[in-house]
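Write out the bound-state structure for PBG.
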Amino acid sequence: MLLHWPLQAKGLSSTEQKVVTFLGPSGSEFLGIEFLASKLIRIGTRGSALALAQAHETRSRLMAAHDLPEEAFEIVVIKTSGDQIQDRPLSEAGGKGLFTKEIEEAMLDGRIDLAVHSSKDMPTVLPDGLGLTAFLPREDVRDAFLSPKARTLTELPHGAVVGSSSLRRQAMIKRLRPDIEVVMYRGNLQTRLKKLEEGQVDATLLAYAGLRRLGLEEHVTSLLDTDDFLPAVGQGAIGIESRLDDAETLALLAPIHDADTQFRLDAERAFLAVLDGSCRTPIGGLATVEGDKLHFRGKILKPDGSEVHEISREGFTSDALLIGREAGLALKDLAGPNFLAG
Ligand SMILES: NCc1[nH]cc(CCC(=O)O)c1CC(=O)O
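---
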């Protein structure tokens, strides 16, 4: 039985818990600890339009799952160092942790209860005491091609200029089209679309998931096939981070968690963790799930696309972490000792 918000708030302390049956996303029932929301649930997020859209989606799912009103939540916008660096690629400025550090500090200080992230931007190692404790059902993982000049990447004129600051996209573009010039391209999604419109570049590649979450899919010219364009690890998956010892928040998140997305992310992040030594290496990795089977594909490239190594592995979803890790080790072997170093 689930109580409703104003009743719950009356006379119940936030530490009171009760075992109840939750209705899962596919109609499955499972036992959990009912979240007795007598305090505000504080959701930490970055302030970009995409980050806010993801925080709002998370809040909506929590409201629906627990029959809570919007007022039960506070969205706490946190500026991260990554948001302040606009002049150079993030891989040079210090990598992925730049988008999470200040948010994680807020969580460890108890200023927020959970944080909503693009899994793609999350480091593989999180601070002690914190974890990615829930994943929303994953969006379309593909990269989108956007251009007023051509329908697809292959149809772009010789010597065209493509804007992208992602090492992976740069290398994959050069692999397919060595004649194309790839230029640095940062800023939020709206800024990038404006630069494209103004003709500063002939085309750009962006995650389809992000464009969809912002309702900007009408700008998409075509979608890239995952065979050529293996997505980044975690692309399209919203991950929720919380304190591992915060049972109340874990119970709150349980009914909005998607198990298949977790399996896929477990494999992909385990793969990345093995190869992560250098964040200067273009890496793609994608796991898919069918029933209790998981299929994983991984790829590393030289930044100029001149060399590529690929791996694929299959197994049971319950072995997701092992499959990803094993694929990473095997790919490292394939590429040889000098590949990741230089
Ligand atoms: N690196 C920025 C970033 N982080 C997550 C997304 C898109 C949303 C997602 O992959 O979940 C984007 C933009 C992009 O790559 O186009």
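---
Residues 118, 120-121, 206-207, 209-210, 235-236 surround PBG (CB under 6 Å).
The chain has three domains: 5-136+237-257, 143-223, 266-341.
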